[in-house]
C-alpha cells in the first residue's frame, strides 16, 4: 500500500518554483484581514456568488449539467429540481453550504468525509451515499481511435477503509506537529484522496469540497469568496495533466507530487489576486457602478460574457450591466458577438 509520508515528503517539494508560489500566497494571506474588513454586504455578495459558481463548476467538470440560469436558481433554492442532475446539484449545494458556513466544526477525518459524501448524494435515489466503495474501480481514458484503457488503478475496495484511516491519521499528525506549510499539506491530502478514490461516485466533487474545507481550516479562506472550482474548471486540461503526471508510481510511493502541487498553488494564487481585485472594486465607492462594469469589460482579453461581469460585480444588478453594455455599444467602444446564451462582448480595436 502507498506510504502516506506527511513528515519528510513536504520538504522535498520545496523547489524554487513551489517556494515562490507559497511566498506569494503567504503575502496575500497576510492581507486577508483587510479583505475581510470589507462591508458585510460586500462579503455576503461575494460568498453567494462563489457558492453558485463552485457548485456549477464542480458539477460541470463531472458531466452533471443544467442550464446556467437553472444552476443559480437551484443553488438559491428558488426552483424545484426536475431530474437527477438537478437533484445532484441540490445535494452539492447543501454540502458546500455546510463547508463554507461550518468548516471550523468539520475535522478532516473519516466521519466527516463520509458525512459530506452522504449529503452530496442525499437527494438521489439508489445511490451509495456516505459509504466507502463496494467494488474495485479504475480511472480510464479513451484514445483518438475510441479505444478505452486503464490510466490509473485506484485502491481496492477491500483496502479503502484502511487507506482512508491512514491518510486522515497521517495528515492530522502533520498538522499537529506544525513543521510544514498547511496549504502544502492540504494539497497533498486531496491528491492522495483522489488516488485512493474511496467512493463509487463523486470523488472529484468530494476532492474539491475537501480542498475548500482544508484550505479554510488552515486559514486560507479565499475559497469562500472566490470559486476555486471555477478556476480549476477554466484550466481543465492542465488540471488533468498534473493529475496524470503526479499519479505515476503512486502505489509504489515513488510518484512526483510537484506537477499537481504546482498547479494547485497557481490556482490558489489566482484566487487571491481575484479576491483583491474584486474587494478593491467593491469598496471603492468613488468609482461608479457603470465605471466598474466598463473597467471589467475593457480589462478583459478577448470576449467577455454578461455572467462574467456579474461574477466580478455581484452587487450590481443585471439591469445596470445590460444598460452599460448597450451604452458602450452605442459609443462604439465594444461590439456584441453570438446570440442567446452564447452572447459575448469584445473591445473595438
The proportion of strand residues reads: 5-15%
CATH class of the largest domain, named Mainly Alpha
- Helix/strand-derived category reads mainly alpha
Overall average pLDDT: 89
Mind explaining what this structure looks like?
- This protein has helices at 9-12, 16-30, 32-36, 40-61, 68-75, 84-102, 110-120, 160-177, 182-196, 203-217, 228-234, 236-247, 258-283, 289-299, 306-312, 318-330, and strands at 138-142, 148-153, 303-304, 334-337, 344-347.
- With 349 residues, the protein is mostly helical.
- It is built from 16 helices and five strands.
- Helix content is 60%, strand content 6%.
- The protein folds into two domains: 9-282, Fido-like domain (Fic-like fold); 286-347, Winged helix-like DNA-binding domain superfamily/Winged helix DNA-binding domain (Arc Repressor Mutant, subunit A, Orthogonal Bundle).
- The strands form two sheets. The protein has a three-stranded antiparallel sheet with strand order 3-5-4. Strands 1-2 form a two-stranded antiparallel ribbon.
